[in-house]
Amino acid sequence: MWDSVADYYKSSQWLYRLFIYNKDTLGMHFGFWDVHTKNRQQAILNENDEIIRLAGIKKGMVVLDAGCTQDFGKTNFANDYFDVIFGIESLCYASPKTNILKELHRILKPGGILIIADGYLKGKSNMNLFQKDIEDFKSAFALKEFVTGGEMVASLKKAGFSAIQSNSYLNRVKTVLYWLVKLGGSFFRPIYANSLALELACKGASQGFMDYLVIKAVK
């Protein structure tokens, strides 16, 4: 699984560096938009600030950024090592979720905070209507599975987390999604795959079968 994720990012790296990546923000995620936001890099900083606020990150804390291409189901970190772990649009690649969440639970200190910011299916009652869109989205972003927020919360509980809070930030992500879609497609696979995934994310957001959640959990 992780090989396919790594292949996706290797093939798309030049695209991210050309259109998405910025050396000042060091971010490739969507970011949060508000009335004061002027560009996508500010949106990324907004999301970073929100993660810091929710996790209560302070100077001196030991923090892990759980990125996309690493298998956090098997780490060499000691028990009870980190104060905070956050994964921005990365733990969607974990499958099955519980295995990796158990490992993150192990390396968090007692009372430590896990923050997950990611896209999710919004319920399953109308999934059949959008099954092809969902499968195309998974394929374009190299996802093995695409779960609901409720399923992620259930996996967190199974892994031992408590005090779980889940809030939708979809309205703050929509503007960024629409902006990215304007980058358009190409005959080159990396651009086409990303363009397709973003178009489907916009469709999911507008038609109500996808959501963007920030989930906070405590060890």
TrEMBL record:
Transmembrane segments: none annotated. Keywords: Transferase. Residues 69-116 form the Methyltransferase type domain. Pfam families: Methyltransf_11 (PF08241). It comes from the Bacteria. One of its GO terms (molecular function) is S-adenosylmethionine-dependent methyltransferase activity. The keyword Transcription regulation does not apply. This is Methyltransferase type 11 domain-containing protein.
